């Protein structure tokens, strides 16, 4: 698997892991190695509407931005939020790798870990994040209403009294019956729910940035693009842009275990009635991968233009991550590893002489407690044993 930044080196360009293929990966996590880096992963751009509400960079409006995320988008939002004077509140499923929560907290954001449930459940992490923004807006409206009723010296007294009450009655209306918690950003000047799954700023970021940079960096010689989907923003934006540039560029989905998108793309049916999320109260994904795979069609994914789909396994992802670490010095997370399995599959099907691109979207540093934990892998029968790429033929 040849990193994109090394494509001009003849010894790397001549042959990929499947023989005779030029395989490129847009990799934002190893920028010192790149000649041309992607300017934006797209994740931080999901909050673009929120940026417009928050005012210019550096303004301190102290509004809150909330998001439900398995980790990567939340890390991006937590990184950029302070620059726009925003507080960040992240709701994350508690089965996600714990180091993601630690990174988000280190960036100054509030992390709320919740049990994994179906998206139809009111306490799904996305639904809670949406509710947190609403709670912040309600609290902000109440504060503004109280402030407007004060004037002169009475304003100072009321303001002081209100400050003392913020941990009491002022939060009473924002409590969650299921958890007994209130919204920690409810003392902000309102809340904005980034809504990465349905917010089309996600798709647009990749249509306007990632897609064009892939086209430019491959000098228009790309034959195929393949990637997994979580929100669907990356694969939608990139595939639509590439198809506009050249209808012959083939775009494929790589789907992990437990996800229904493979069936949607290949058969037009999302899932069987027994697998419908409305009938499943537990976490619908039975996979070691995080941040990819879903059992519903998001607004972002609807924008994708795909020629087909592949289905990967946890073992393939684990083995591919170790292969790339040994052979290319790439320390990749589960999503990136699955993407590379997809690139190898496409290479096998297209044959020699094709340029295939995928996305390396997460570092192994975010997956130490599970994906790179020997004991965890052994307990799930996923201990890597391959010495090469023979696992692709199993």
Q: What layout of secondary structure does this protein have?
A:
Elements: H1 10-13, E1 22-26, H2 48-54, E2 63-68, H3 72-80, E3 86-93, H4 98-106, E4 110-114, H5 125-148, H6 152-165, E5 191-193, H7 201-217, E6 224-227, H8 233-245, E7 250-255, H9 261-267, E8 308-311, H10 314-328, H11 334-350, E9 355-359, H12 374-379
Parallel strand pairs: 1-9, 2-3, 2-5, 3-4, 6-7, 6-9, 7-8
Please give a structural write-up.
The chain has two domains: 4-37 and 203-393, 3-Layer(aba) Sandwich (Rossmann fold); 44-193, Rossmann fold. Helices cover 36% and strands 12% of the residues. The protein is built from twelve helices and nine strands. It has helices spanning 10-13, 48-54, 72-80, 98-106, 125-148, 152-165, 201-217, 233-245, 261-267, 314-328, 334-350, 374-379, and strands at 22-26, 63-68, 86-93, 110-114, 191-193, 224-227, 250-255, 308-311, 355-359. A five-stranded parallel beta sheet has the order 1-9-6-7-8, sandwiched between helices. Strands 4-3-2-5 form a four-stranded parallel beta sheet, sandwiched between helices. Residues 55-362 form the Tryptophan synthase beta chain-like PALP domain. It comes from Brachypodium distachyon. Residues 1-10, 39-65 have a biased composition (Basic and acidic residues).
